[in-house]
Amino acid sequence: MKTRILLLISFFAAATLSLTAQQYTAYEYWKMENDSSYTRLQRLSDAGESLSADDAAFLGSYKKKLGDYFSAMPDSEKAFYFQNRSAWSKNTMPVPGPVVRQDPDIFEGEKSLFTKYLTVSGVFGYLYGWATIGILGIENEGTIAGLPFLTAGVSTLLPLAYVKDRNVTYNSLQLAIHGKTMGGLQGAALGILFAGNKTDENPELILGVATLSSITMGHVGFAIGRKNAWSKGKVGLLTHYGTLIPFEGIALTGAFASEHPSAYAASFMAGGAAGYLLGNHIAGKYDYTKGDIVSTQALTLLGGVLGLGLIPKSHWEEDMNSADILFPAFGALAGSLASHPWTKGARLTNQQGRNIALATTGGSLAGMGVILLFMPESPNPYFLASFTGGVTAYSLMMGRYKKQNAVSGNLTGSGNSDRKWNLNLMPQNILFNKSIAEASLARPGERHYMLPAFAASVTF
To answer: What is the 3-state secondary structure (H, E, C) of 181-201?
Structure first.
């Protein structure tokens, strides 16, 4: 009972101080949330043990006060809480002292996401200036020279006005860039649909809709990134599939040799919606890290290279078939989807993801270098060798980091089961098995062993 009284006194003292200073901080909320008496009663409740009437009433009251305190915190403090609560729990970073946390220096260059956001806004503002020139058909040389710089300057200054707390998270920056870029392309597709069969006669309409869509979706992406406490992995999945699937739609339309621009525009827009749904669905199945998604992007490119290598040799030598575009398109999609079971449980850091991407690139170049020694006339061996070298390097690096993270305690599994799955895909062995099969036919009296294309194990 004394413990609860002391806890209530401490809580009201902290609440009074917060109200006096008009400060609702992330660290104070974390301390309240991790108070020993509160967490003890919460554990007992979660374990199904019965609490006394006083304890149950206190627990409910304290939870309500926690909710009220969190609601009163500004968005910047909420974001700061979600970013640092894990580190505070592990004591891996110094906790804020009693001095009120100052706004971060917004002129820290690479360390400041706000500075990066200003830079991105200026770059897109410059492009919007040129778009305005095209929309209005401006021919004056002075206006052409000055307008892009004018819009770049205004676009850089505007965030200083509407981002008053100078709080730009990684998610808001990435979604803003993605929104501006894909918003422009989706807007252009919408403009083509508006123009119908008269796209050549309405370039101003298409450019105008694209510019308006880019500006709008950039602000929407920024707002979504600030509002939602998503993981970096989920943001990476949304931007990855939100970019990949629209181009898959264009490839599918191109396979039918359509001559209607509106068909390509419609498939691009439909692909955008499907991409976000797919990315959100995958993110809901497992909490991938940003490093995982970087490695996914590397395997996506490798899948496209494999698709180019699978285009029939005769098509390279003669006229290409319109359906040949599906080989690299579906290869890229297959590579992307295959990466998820491969990276599940890896919990790659950002640097590990970049290292895998760099190793994959190096392996692809090495594979192509080997084939260049023989200079075959068909392009297929170049693509297949690049894929083989890249996927071999990818497999080796992924296996290394999985073991490393497992030893260091970072391999936590899916969080939905006590079973730990370990899945290794080795598609390069399919190509090796082809050579082994040819050798076995040439020497039927000898024993030959095939290499596995995948291996899986589960620990109970």
So the answer is: HHHHHHHHHHHHHHHCCCHHH
